[in-house]
Design goal:
This protein is of the alpha/beta class. It folds into two domains: 17-81, no CATH class; 94-243, Zincin-like (2-Layer Sandwich). The protein contains six helices and eleven strands. The protein has helices at 62-71, 73-81, 130-155, 193-205, 214-223, 227-237; strands spanning 17-20, 30-34, 42-46, 51-56, 94-97, 100-106, 114-117, 120-123, 163-167, 174-176, 181-185. A hairpin with a 2-residue loop joins strand 5 (94-97) and strand 6 (100-106). The longest helix is centred in the middle third of the chain and has 26 residues, at 130-155. The radius of gyration is 26 Å and the shape is elongated. The protein starts with 16 loop residues before the first strand and ends in an 8-residue tail after the last helix. Zinc ion binds at residues 202, 206, 212. Zinc ion is lined by residues 202, 206, 212.
């Protein structure tokens, strides 16, 4: 049996404690974090959760914390509305598919992965697999659609396409290598077909003009009638596509 030389003292709690806090008039989630190392109350925006976090030293009354948050609403409110809202793939959520909003409908009893039906994306299997299944479905559809459209567009010039791949690229919607490999962002499958066609025309035109000069743009215009509208759509709406999933 171990000998205890000194009487055991109850060690001070060094653990960070986190819990939800509701404050009247605040719609966004607010997290109360009790941090033993904190020396004063502080408020932070938490973009990943679409809310805010208030960090407090131990022993501060909740009422005091609420008052603190209320006093800083003028600082908090505009920062909260500026956070882009993420759109996770879950039952009942709407996701655009080829430009049309589709409701995700979880149907655990059905032996399907994902099937588009009457403006919905029906998803079978366990709920835990739903987000991955929806993502896989969209990637697969993107690959199929972008491959078919790239080859059809290339045949009109004519040029050859060596391969088509899809990725989750943030900085650009498509790219074309010197040896004819096209790569697209799979999120394009959420955009309307006429926007997809512009991106395809753009990349296929690079098979002839590896630049963005006047001859390149004339070539893109000859392949696609909606260049200006599609570029405007991507500028206005494109960023939104990255919030899904
Ligand atoms: Zn380009």
């Amino acid at each position: 049996m171990p000998l205890r030389l000194r009487p055991r003292r109850s060690a001070p709690k060094r653990r960070v404690e986190t819990r939800a806090l509701s404050v009247e008039g605040l719609e966004a989630p607010l997290e109360l974090r009790i941090n033993p190392r904190a020396t004063r109350l502080s408020l932070k925006i938490d973009p990943a959760h679409g809310g805010a976090r208030v960090v407090v030293p131990p022993g501060v009354a909740e009422k005091h914390v609420r008052d603190f948050v209320l006093r800083h609403m003028g600082w908090l409110a505009p920062r909260l509305t500026a956070i882009p809202v993420r759109r996770p793939f879950e039952d009942g959520a709407a996701v655009p598919f080829r430009g049309q909003p589709h409701l995700i409908r979880h149907e655990p009893g059905r032996r399907i992965a994902v099937r588009p039906e009457d403006g919905a994306l029906c998803v079978g299997g366990e709920a835990a697999h739903l987000p991955r299944r929806v993502t896989d479905f969209l990637k697969r559809e993107a690959k199929r659609e972008l491959t078919a459209r790239s080859h059809a567009m290339a045949a009109r010039l004519p040029v050859t396409i060596r391969a088509v791949t899809v990725r989750d690229t943030r900085s650009r919607w498509g790219s074309c290598s010197a040896d004819g490999r096209l790569s697209y962002c799979w999120r394009l499958i959420m955009a309307p077909d006429w926007v997809i066609d512009y991106v395809v025309a753009h990349e296929v035109a690079h098979r002839i003009e590896m630049n963005h000069g006047p001859r390149f743009w004339a070539l893109v215009e000859s392949l696609d009638p909606n260049v200006a509208a599609a570029r405007a759509w991507l500028k206005e709406e494109g960023g939104r596509l990255h919030l899904y999933g």
